[in-house]
């Protein structure tokens, strides 16, 4: 039994607005909006918990409207193995080299996991009972990224001292400031590209979408993030290959051939600076650091690691020939160090089951999930990543997990059938949300 979206437009519009607000606030809470530690902690803890309660309230509001919560688990190993990963992280408090840090990181990762559970469940319920509605996860994500990026683009002109971060001895200004790591901001821009590009598939506001993408690419360029630029180009190439219109393919490929060399020369190769080229070859010192981690750090705690989000007995790991690091700058190396080979095995299997579920999904969902995974996976190779310290890359990966983890229960209870029947027969003017 389904409901006619035309009869429930006000309810659907209201739900879409709240979904956007919740997602926007959740992602925004990962930023460091103030240099004041107290304010930052209040935003990250109080703000994120408030958004979590907001997601639960919205879920109850949708249920009270008469929409059955008749979802069931599908691809159980996807979310199940992630749950095992979180359980192992919780258990690691027993041997963590700093329980306070491990507990805080675990709490924030679990908190976003629960948020994504309710967020995706709301969308799944609407998908099931309002076929033909316009609420789309990729639009919610794309618009969230656009408005956050717009804050930085405006800020870089209004208050450059705050929104720019000086690197390489003050020679290079990169968008992000103290608010957000430029590479993480670049990854966020990549996710926005991956999501908004879907609007072209059904010609949904193409001019507005083009404007949004121009702003996002401008932000991406200003971050100076090499990996994010490569990810964005890969996303465009991926979608071009999905198009059946040869003319569009030729035009986009021609545009990429013109833009890519300039972008790569400016952002990746840094105008051919020889010192910067040497820096690229060592991945800004990451390769020696990873080598030292495997050779010196891992043998100390190979089985269960140093504890959730810990990479050494001390606060920083430092080898004789590497810089001191508090994190590994590689999400898979991070898992290996903080949860050992046991945690790494769980993570590998979790990702395998996730990819299997994505490849068996509907075409639209499959393309969307792969598009989102491209920038966050690239970011995972050089930064915090999907299993690193709490960041919105983890949030996006958790959204992917739950997007392929819900199925539809075939039979409704008597109470659910009666509630759905009442809503089906309700006139548009009487279809105001309850609560």
From TrEMBL:
<feature type="transmembrane region" description="Helical">
    <location>
        <begin position="140"/>
        <end position="158"/>
    </location>
</feature>
<feature type="transmembrane region" description="Helical">
    <location>
        <begin position="250"/>
        <end position="269"/>
    </location>
</feature>
<feature type="transmembrane region" description="Helical">
    <location>
        <begin position="185"/>
        <end position="201"/>
    </location>
</feature>
<feature type="domain" description="O-antigen ligase-related">
    <location>
        <begin position="213"/>
        <end position="347"/>
    </location>
</feature>
<feature type="transmembrane region" description="Helical">
    <location>
        <begin position="213"/>
        <end position="238"/>
    </location>
</feature>
<feature type="transmembrane region" description="Helical">
    <location>
        <begin position="367"/>
        <end position="388"/>
    </location>
</feature>
<feature type="transmembrane region" description="Helical">
    <location>
        <begin position="17"/>
        <end position="33"/>
    </location>
</feature>
<keyword id="KW-0472">Membrane</keyword>
<feature type="transmembrane region" description="Helical">
    <location>
        <begin position="331"/>
        <end position="355"/>
    </location>
</feature>
<keyword id="KW-0812">Transmembrane</keyword>
<feature type="transmembrane region" description="Helical">
    <location>
        <begin position="101"/>
        <end position="120"/>
    </location>
</feature>
<feature type="transmembrane region" description="Helical">
    <location>
        <begin position="71"/>
        <end position="95"/>
    </location>
</feature>
<keyword id="KW-0436">Ligase</keyword>
<dbReference type="InterPro" id="IPR051533">
    <property type="entry name" value="WaaL-like"/>
</dbReference>
<dbReference type="Pfam" id="PF04932">
    <property type="entry name" value="Wzy_C"/>
</dbReference>
<keyword id="KW-1133">Transmembrane helix</keyword>
<dbReference type="GO" id="GO:0016874">
    <property type="term" value="F:ligase activity"/>
</dbReference>
<feature type="transmembrane region" description="Helical">
    <location>
        <begin position="394"/>
        <end position="412"/>
    </location>
</feature>
<dbReference type="InterPro" id="IPR007016">
    <property type="entry name" value="O-antigen_ligase-rel_domated"/>
</dbReference>
<protein>
    <submittedName>
        <fullName>O-antigen ligase</fullName>
    </submittedName>
</protein>
<dbReference type="GO" id="GO:0016020">
    <property type="term" value="C:membrane"/>
</dbReference>
<feature type="transmembrane region" description="Helical">
    <location>
        <begin position="289"/>
        <end position="311"/>
    </location>
</feature>
């Amino acid at each position: 039994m389904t409901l006619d979206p035309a009869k429930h437009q006000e309810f659907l519009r209201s739900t879409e607005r709240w979904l956007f607000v919740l997602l926007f606030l959740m992602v925004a809470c990962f930023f460091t909006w103030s240099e004041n530690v107290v304010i930052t902690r209040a935003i990250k803890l109080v703000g994120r918990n408030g958004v979590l309660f907001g997601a639960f309230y919205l879920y109850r509001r949708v249920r009270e409207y008469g929409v059955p919560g008749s979802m069931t688990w599908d691809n159980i190993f996807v979310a199940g193995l992630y749950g095992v990963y979180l359980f192992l992280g919780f258990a690691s408090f027993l041997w963590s080299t700093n329980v306070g840090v491990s507990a805080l990181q675990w709490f924030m990762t679990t908190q976003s996991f629960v948020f994504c559970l309710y967020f995706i469940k709301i969308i799944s319920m609407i998908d099931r009972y309002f076929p033909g509605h316009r609420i789309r996860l990729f639009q919610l994500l794309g618009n969230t990224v656009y408005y956050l990026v717009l804050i930085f683009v405006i800020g870089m002109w209004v208050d450059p001292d705050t929104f720019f971060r000086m690197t390489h001895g003050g020679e290079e200004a990169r968008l992000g400031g103290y608010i957000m790591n430029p590479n993480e901001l670049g990854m966020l821009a990549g996710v926005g590209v991956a999501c908004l590009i879907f609007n072209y598939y059904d010609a949904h506001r193409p001019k507005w979408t083009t404007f949004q993408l121009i702003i996002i690419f401008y932000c991406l360029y200003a971050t100076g993030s090499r990996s994010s630029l490569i990810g964005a180009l890969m996303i465009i190439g991926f979608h071009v290959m999905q198009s059946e219109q040869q003319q569009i393919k030729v035009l986009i490929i021609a545009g990429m051939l013109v833009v890519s060399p300039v972008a790569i020369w400016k952002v990746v190769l840094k105008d051919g600076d020889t010192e910067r080229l040497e820096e690229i070859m060592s991945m800004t010192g990451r390769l020696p650091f990873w080598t030292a981690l495997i050779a010196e750090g891992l043998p100390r705690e190979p089985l269960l690691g140093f504890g959730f989000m810990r990479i050494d007995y001390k606060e920083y790991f430092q080898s004789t020939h590497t810089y001191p690091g508090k994190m590994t700058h590689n999400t898979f190396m991070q898992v290996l160090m903080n949860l050992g080979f046991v945690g790494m095995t769980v993570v590998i299997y979790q990702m395998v089951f996730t990819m299997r579920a994505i490849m068996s999904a509907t075409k639209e969902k499959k393309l969307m999930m792969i598009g989102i995974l491209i920038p966050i996976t690239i970011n995972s190779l050089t930064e915090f990543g999907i299993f690193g310290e709490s960041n919105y890359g983890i949030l996006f990966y958790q959204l992917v997990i739950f997007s392929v983890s819900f199925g539809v229960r075939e039979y409704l209870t008597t109470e659910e059938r009666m509630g759905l029947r009442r809503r089906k027969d309700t006139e548009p003017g009487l279809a105001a949300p309850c609560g």
